[in-house]
Specification:
The complex is a heterodimer of chains A (about 190) and B (about 600). With about 190 residues, chain A is α/β, with parallel strands linked by helices. Chain A is built from 8 helices and 6 strands, in the order βαβββαβααβαααα. The longest helix of chain A is centred in the C-terminal third of the chain and has 17 residues. Chain B is built from 20 helices and 23 strands. Classes of the chains: A alpha/beta (about 190), B alpha/beta (about 600). Strand 2 of chain A pairs antiparallel with strand 9 of chain B, so a sheet runs across the interface.
Chain lengths: ~190, ~600
């Protein structure tokens, strides 16, 4: 059986590093892995999504609607946008942060209210965390991606806990390692 | 990331790795999504001399020269880039090669960042150049190597055709060592390298003979294989479509094609005879299907599967429902909430923003071009009215004024970036001067090819490998093209932008405005900052600052007044410059 994890957020939030770390850890754990994301126009503050699939043998790099096991959302509106990929009862991990899209900041649309409550109606398994707040507490809001990865890691039992920090040490530049290891632990404890 | 001899690579990274392992020494390209990273990765290998060209045609011609000169070579472009390079592409099909030559075409089904979804497999057919289609990163690497080998064995360039989902998806690749290419150099051979009509006639005959030999190889090669399964359903597929099909029909029989031109007709016939229902699954055009039908074999294909858009497993399942054993996945019930779209926007501090603000204010008709500034077409800018292809802005304007004459004079502006100007805008400017056009051309010089993720170019001062390079003098070039009135402005100085534009629009000759300021995201760019702040008591909700389309300017959801998002604001000062009641102000002193 394949494990399907969809990471979504806003361009510039660091979804890419999180999905890279996840994929490398799954590979380290001995799985076949595929990952797919769209670059280009999405870089300019647009909606970004990354599909990660791992298992014994993975064919398509794309997750089907209704077959996503875990949705890892870096922003609440994006969580809502991508829940249509979630399998019924699938896990949603959502960073309780709101980034207004241009349509909202220009006053042409409204940002949906009470997203956490709405998500809870969609699935019984929702973890809403203040990852951006925790990242700021750690002194660098950019590490919110690794905080979220920590939350996710706790729920991926197929990958041994020690694989994650080892991979962070391998993939993150030396000067940022301590910060990111702390961020990972913070996330792990939030889950 | 590398663990032992395995790595998790994107298709683009795998192509570069394959080129390196195959002994490639030279590579050139013009950036274009989804092909850009191929050259960037090539540039990470010391043994590959990788360079950014000013356009796809010069890239192609240079790699042709390099392969004539004895270096195994690679060029890469997005699908529409091959339109630009089509002329040399067709010719090199005739001349053949000296050292191996692989030409990558990265197509964009679904148009994630392109103006069309042309299926470049037809280019291989039309130019009579053999073509591989990888379906994952391992194959992308293996086929790049096979392409170099085939190129030398059959004396032909070879095309490697990927799509966005191959180029930008990542999967596990087994790595190999670099091969040493035999020493070669250019040998004068007019009959081979000069396509004068007499030679070309002989070369065409050679091409036809060569194709027959490659077709024979295609019927027996490892890249075209029958994967035996349940014979009630037989699927012919290639590229990413094969991967999606495998999810939906896990137990069917497959003819998995990796070398799709020339088509392995023997294999097609053999496979068709072995299965009950034959289905061809391919994205966009019926390229394989047409070949199957030409053999008199009936199949299911584009009568069910869409021609438009990118495939995914859901589309294949939905289109071929009655042949699929499992039901469609059960979906999560979505709440009844309106979800606002989040399109890409010009970044905070983008030097293009003020230009579009003034163009809109002066109600200009704007012919646009391809780059970040294409976002000027979207609300709230709404200041771009045509986008055709790279470099078309200037010549589109020339054509419009030829059609409308005085009716459009004083209102018509062509807008393009400095990289696009060098790519193919400059010829249009010469055309404009020569043919007595009068429109204004604005060159947005942000010192980098930004849209594709910051590639160096002749205006940036560095090469792909990071070596210092001469910087092109745009003012001198425009003067040399015959433009008398060449203006330079700082796009953050809105007053200067507006008055310069008014002067240029009133001119009876063609004029050029060079709006020069680096892309705000450039790491080397450290502008001095004067802080911007807002006194919300003074805000009268006039909405003028909202027209800047800045992500840092927000409408407060409660009181409807402007607020500045401090996390996003980079203090460019444009909002302070346009604010009428003086609510937003910028400090006089640098912070």
């Amino acid at each position: 059986m394949a494990r399907n994890i969809l990471l979504c957020g806003v361009g510039g939030q660091g979804t890419l590093l999180a999905s890279n770390l996840l994929a490398e850890c799954a590979m380290e754990a001995g799985f076949d892995v595929k990952k797919s994301e769209i670059h280009g126009m999405a870089q300019r503050g647009g909606s970004v999504v990354s599909h990660v699939r791992f298992g014994e043998r993975i064919c398509s790099p794309i997750i089907r609607k209704g077959e996503c096991d875990i949705l890892l959302a870096f922003e609440e509106l994006e969580a809502l946008r991508w829940t249509e990929f979630l399998k019924p009862g699938g896990l949603v991990i959502s960073n309780a942060q709101n980034i207004l899209p241009m349509s909202v900041s220009a006053g042409n649309a409204r940002y949906p209210q009470h997203i956490t409550e709405t998500l809870a109606k969609i699935s019984a398994d929702v973890i809403s965390v203040d990852a951006i707040g925790k990242a700021r507490e750690l002194g660098n809001q950019k590490c919110l991606n690794v905080v979220l990865l920590g939350v996710l890691a706790r729920r991926i039992t197929e990958i041994k806990p020690e694989v994650w920090p080892e991979m962070i040490k391998k993939m993150v530049p030396q000067r940022l390692q301590e910060l990111n290891l702390k961020a990972f632990r913070t996330g792990w404890e939030l889950a | 990331m590398q663990s032992s001899n395995r790595a998790f690579l994107s298709g683009n990274a795998a192509i570069a790795r394959g080129a390196w392992e195959a002994g490639v020494r030279f590579a050139s390209a013009y950036p274009g999504t989804p092909s850009t990273e191929i050259l960037e990765y090539c540039g990470t290998y010391n043994e590959i001399d990788a360079q950014w060209a000013v356009n796809e045609k010069t890239a192609m011609e240079t790699v042709i020269g390099a392969c004539y000169g004895g270096a195994r070579s690679l060029c890469a472009q997005k699908h529409v880039g091959l339109n630009v390079a089509a002329d040399p592409f067709f010719t090199v099909g005739y001349t053949g090669v000296n050292a191996g030559l692989v030409i990558v075409s990265a197509d964009d089904p679904g148009m994630h960042s392109s103006q069309n979804e042309q299926d470049n497999r037809y280019y291989a057919m039309m130019a009579k150049i053999p073509m591989f289609e990888p379906s994952n990163s391992q194959e992308a690497k293996d086929m790049t190597k096979a392409a170099i080998k085939m190129s030398e064995e059959y004396d032909t360039p070879v095309m490697l055709r990927t799509t966005t989902r191959i180029s930008h998806s990542e999967s596990i690749v087994t790595l190999g060592e670099r091969e040493t290419a035999p020493e070669r150099e250019f040998v004068r051979d007019m009959a081979k390298y000069c396509v004068l009509p007499n030679n070309a006639r002989r070369l065409h005959v050679k091409v036809e003979e060569r194709l027959k030999k490659v077709a024979e190889y295609g019927n027996n090669c490892e890249f075209n294989r029958i994967e035996a399964g349940d014979t009630r359903i037989g699927i012919i597929s290639s590229g990413i479509s094969y991967c999606h099909a495998r999810e939906i029909f896990p137990s069917a029989s497959y003819l998995k094609l990796g070398l799709t031109f020339p088509m392995p007709t023997g294999l097609l016939k053999k496979f068709a005879e072995s299965v009950e229902t034959l289905i061809v699954i391919e994205e966009n055009e019926p390229f394989i299907e047409t070949a199957v039908r030409a053999l008199g074999i009936n199949c299911i294909g584009k009568d069910r599967l869409p021609v438009c858009g990118e495939f995914n497993p859901d589309i294949i399942h939905e289109s071929l429902k009655e042949f699929v054993e499992k039901p469609m996945p059960q979906l999560t019930k979505m709440p009844d909430v309106e979800i606002p779209v989040r399109p890409p926007v010009l970044c905070p501090g983008c030097p293009h923003r003020g230009i579009f603000f003034i163009l809109r204010k002066l109600d200009c008709t704007v012919t646009g071009d391809i780059g970040c500034y294409s976002l000027g077409a979207f609300a709230p800018h709404n200041a771009m009215h045509t986008i055709v292809c790279m470099g078309a802005s200037i010549t589109n304007s020339l054509g419009i004024e030829k059609a409308m004459k005085d009716k459009i004079h004083g209102k018509l502006v062509a807008v393009l970036g400095e990289s696009t100007f060098m790519h193919s805008g400059i010829t249009g400017l010469i055309d404009t001067v020569y043919n007595k056009g009068r429109h204004v051309t604005i060159i947005l010089d942000n010192s980098i090819t930004a849209m594709t993720g910051h590639q160096e170019n002749p205006a940036s001062g560095h090469t792909l490998k990071g070596e210092p390079a001469k910087v092109l003098d745009f003012e001198a070039i425009c003067h040399a093209c015959g433009v008398t009135n060449v203006h330079s402005v700082d796009p953050f100085d809105l007053k200067a932008v507006e008055s310069t534009m008014k002067t240029a629009l009133a001119d009876s000759e063609p004029s050029v405005i060079i709006a020069r300021r680096p892309c705000f995201l450039l790491k080397s760019y450290k502008p001095k900052v004067r802080l911007v702040s807002i006194n919300r008591d003074k805000c009268v909700k006039c909405g003028i600052c909202w027209k800047l389309g800045c992500p840092a300017i927000e409408v407060n959801q409660q009181d409807g007044k402007t607020q500045i998002n401090k996390a996003l604001c980079v203090h460019c000062g444009l909002c302070a410059a346009v604010c009428r009641p003086g609510a937003i102000t910028q400090a006089k002193e640098e912070a």
